[in-house]
Design brief:
Radius of gyration: 13 Å
Number of strands: 2
Mean pLDDT: 80
CATH architecture of one domain: Orthogonal Bundle
CATH class of one domain: Mainly Alpha
Helix content: 25-40%
Shape: globular
Largest sheet: 2 strands, parallel
CATH topology of one domain: DNA polymerase, domain 1
Low-confidence stretches: 1-25
Distance between the termini: 32 Å
Number of helices: 3
Strand order of the largest sheet: 1-2
Order of helices and strands: EHHHE
Strand content: under 5%
Structural class: mainly alpha
Amino acid sequence: MPEPPPGSPPGPSSPLPPAAMGAGGGTIDLNSVSFEELRAQNLSVTQATRLLAHRERLGRFNSVDDLDQVAGFPQDLLEDLKRRSRV
C-alpha cells in the first residue's frame, strides 16, 4: 500500500501517533488521545465527542472500565475499545 502524501490526515487503518499510544505500541491512552486519533480508530464523531467531553467534565480516566460511564457506545464497540485502551 503506498504511503499517503506528507501532511495528509491519517486514514482509518493508520497507526496512532506516538503520543496517544501506550507502551504496547497499539493501545489508546484515554487520558491523552485526541479527537482525530479517536476518529482514526473508527469512532463516530458523536462517540469521539462524548468520550472527550466525559474526560473534560470529570477529569482523567482511572480505569478502562470508566468507559462504561460514557453513553452512546454499543456493547461490542465498548469491549473492543476497552481491549485497545489504557490509562
